[in-house]
Design goal:
491 residues, 50% helix, disordered N terminus
Length: 491
């Protein structure tokens, strides 16, 4: 191919990478969260309607001692019954019409059981007059209203593309073509947004009506600009080396990775079998956090960071004044670092070095801060030793660039260097970076003198991603407060 032809092809790939994905949006909304919200709303509707009817009946709750017991029994019976009859089944489909019918049956069954128990025990007379019938009607209307509102919202979210699952296929050969055609034949709801293949010049521009956007490296760039929920690797069973190289790169993406070919010996991690449009695929890598977990962590971050910011506000003023008086230059130090999915963001710290010694973080051969480093100011040594220089990163957390807990963000030059030396290093970017993390409370702080020391940090970061829970986050935060402020290895 001529140089001009190669340049034109490269421009075409870049244009395709920058092209917005139809119906794409990268927010927190997911079918599982919608179903969870429906569960909570259903319970709230029944509780509120039963309470209001009971409180305003003649004599109030005091005159009807079994009223509260019946209300509780109704909730305890209704919710499990709805689960059994499939009200909340198949969250990705969000079939509001089908749910409505099963919901009515489940609600009527729960009320009949309560009525039967009251008759058998002779306690029906102790209930408020007409309360059970009123609760049946009020609860039924309330549930119907929730479903009508939810149906409207779901329809609008579907039009906006907020409930779909963006799927990318790696491999545009015969296996990829057959996979795409089968998916389109079996399930039109699966959103295929493109194909990628390293043999770009040997495959067609379109496969099954979908564009072959670029190579595997282009996919890594594409994933930073568009939300990808699932990558399906459709490569021949015999291409063992090619598959392994491909999966090593895909490990860095914060999405599910599926393999629709044979398991290659014992080389690959796997978590069982799954399906895409009814086609069997092998689970290789799972996204580190479900949509619900991401929402819970986001709430944790915003609430705790906001409280910490309020409590430490006077300390910020004192530190800012000390930095300003100790050496000329700005109070804050800003540097671009790699964040979630490798996206760059501007990290904030109190400046601890002389202005002329501050680096951009992208210089080749960039070193680490050493003990007794002459670039560090006297106040800077204190701030580093106590980790108070990290306080401005609370603002990064509130902006959504960082979390309170996660792998520490490294300078761009360090990311480039260690990504080439340590297998799985880039998998640290599958979650947001943190102010503190499992590595920091496990003694991995201070100067990095050997590759083994960085390897240990990466291992602890990946262990945190695999073990994540709110409890683990709170434990790390507590241990950071108790021990992190007096770590002699931080300088």
């Amino acid at each position: 191919m001529s140089e001009s032809g190669t340049s034109a092809a490269g421009m075409a790939v870049r244009a395709e990478l920058d092209r917005p994905v139809d119906g794409h949006t990268g927010d927190w909304l997911a079918p599982e969260l919608v179903v969870g919200a429906l569960r909570a709303l259903d319970a709230a509707v029944l509780l509120a309607s039963g309470l209001l009817l009971g409180l305003f009946r003649e004599g109030g709750p005091a005159a009807h001692p079994l009223w509260a017991w019946s209300l509780l029994m109704g909730l305890l019976l209704a919710l499990p019954l709805w689960q059994l009859v499939g009200v909340y089944a198949e969250p990705r489909r969000l079939d509001m019409t089908g749910q409505a019918g099963r919901l009515v049956l489940g609600w009527l069954a729960a009320l009949l059981v309560i009525l039967a128990l009251a008759e058998l025990t002779g306690t029906r007379a102790a209930l408020p007059p007409g309360w059970l019938a009123g609760w049946a009607l009020a609860g039924g209307f309330g549930l119907a209203a929730v479903r009508l509102a939810a149906a409207g919202l779901v329809a609008r979210w579907r039009r906006q593309g907020r409930l779909g699952r963006n799927t990318v296929v790696v491999g545009a050969g015969e296996l990829g073509r057959r996979f795409v055609e089968e998916v389109r034949r079996r399930d039109r709801s699966v959103r295929l947004i493109g194909l990628f293949d390293d043999r770009r010049e040997r495959v067609p521009e379109f496969v099954g009506g979908f564009p072959v956007i670029g190579t595997l490296d282009d996919l890594l760039l594409f994933a930073r600009r568009h939300r990808i929920d699932e990558v399906v690797v459709a490569l021949p069973w015999s291409a063992e080396g090619r598959l392994l190289d491909c999966l090593k790169k895909l490990r860095a993406l914060p999405c599910d990775v599926r393999l629709c070919s044979d398991l290659i010996g014992f080389h690959l991690p796997h978590r069982g079998l799954g399906h895409v449009a009814g086609l069997p695929v092998l689970h290789v890598f799972e996204r580190p956090m479900s949509a619900g977990a991401q929402l819970a962590k986001a709430i944790e971050d915003r609430v705790l960071a906001g409280l910490a910011l309020l409590l430490t506000a006077p300390l910020w003023l004192a530190i800012a004044l000390a930095v300003k008086l100790s050496s000329p230059g700005p109070v804050l130090y800003r540097q671009q670092r790699g964040g979630f999915n490798g996206e760059l963001f501007e990290v904030l710290k109190f400046r601890t070095m002389r202005v002329e010694a501050c680096d951009a973080g992208s210089e080749p051969g960039l070193g680490h801060t050493r003990k007794g480093d002459p670039r560090v100011t006297p106040i800077g040594r204190f701030l580093r030793r106590t980790s108070l220089d990290e306080l401005p990163q609370l603002w990064n957390v509130l902006k959504g660039d960082m979390s309170l807990v996660g792998p520490r963000p490294h300078a761009r030059a360090h990311d480039d260097r260690y990504a080439a030396l340590i297998d799985g290093y880039l998998a640290r970017h599958r979650v947001k970076p943190g102010i503190t993390g499992l590595a920091q409370i496990s003694g991995c702080r201070g100067e990095i003198r050997t590759l083994a020391e960085m390897q240990r940090r990466v291992e602890l970061d990946l262990a945190y991603i695999q073990r994540w829970s709110l409890r683990l986050d709170l434990e790390i935060l507590l241990r950071t407060l108790l021990h992190g402020l007096r770590d002699p290895r931080a300088y």
